[in-house]
Specification:
92 residues, alpha+beta, four-stranded antiparallel β-sheet, Alpha-Beta Plaits, DUF2129
Amino acid sequence: MLTSNRQGMAVYLTSLKFARQLRRFGYVHYVSKKMRYVVLYCNEEAVQTTMEKLQSFHFVKDVQLSMRPYVQTEFQNAKPDKAKEYDYKMGL
């Protein structure tokens, strides 16, 4: 099975009764009842077209893309601080 890269998006709705309709656009990961938004995952290739389709619906307030694929996860300076390293050896 080939895995494709997915990207998340937060879709803010006017009412949650329309949340079930979003299942045809991707995988619905989470639905917030209090803040009325849906976290939706879809393929990276179809993100722009899906976003345009979602924004055209009358029940969608806003669509925001997740920036997680663009955030750097490898850090340059990964050495621990000398003072903290000494405290760990002491057992504090």
